[in-house]
Amino acid sequence: MTRYYFITIFCLFVLVGCNDSTNNHDNALPHSNTAANNKISTTDKAKLTNAKGKKVQEVDIYDIEQMFDASQGRLHVFSFWKYDCEDCKTSIKVLQEALTQIEDSKYRWILINMDDQSKAAAVNTYIRSENIFGETYIFSPKTKNWMDGLHESWNGQIPATFFVLEDEEIKMYLARKLEKNELEAVLNALVF
Question: What's residue 159's pLDDT?
């Protein structure tokens, strides 16, 4: 008896609920909600694009050397870092804050993560959650003597930041946590 009662109520609900004379069912679906007043703001759209599109790519020493050689009239800033290194993360934040004060066309910021591929997911999550705007790569050495190709005095210590100008020369190399005042002085000397 109770079962028939529920079936009857269900049928009445379906009949009454589907008696919509405006045929406006599609507007309830998220994929078809295209009304002009529901547009995403430009800021939110940029955030979504950045979050979806940010993914580290694998590079080797030859790729990095080509990036060094392609500075073409603007400052290239290379940040070498690891996911578990707090000094690295602090340096990235300080550098990002300083670079926002400079016109985009005057620099290119390239982050090279020195972790192995097993940390790629963590690195992706970090750069998205912290809104890191620099190009981000994960280093995959294909030779044992890869460090010889970058800078003769660099021993692999991180964080390390290289500043390369249009003449393809390393103008400044810092293998330590970056301080805001020091970084601003370096950028002012190299960019302005």
Answer: 94
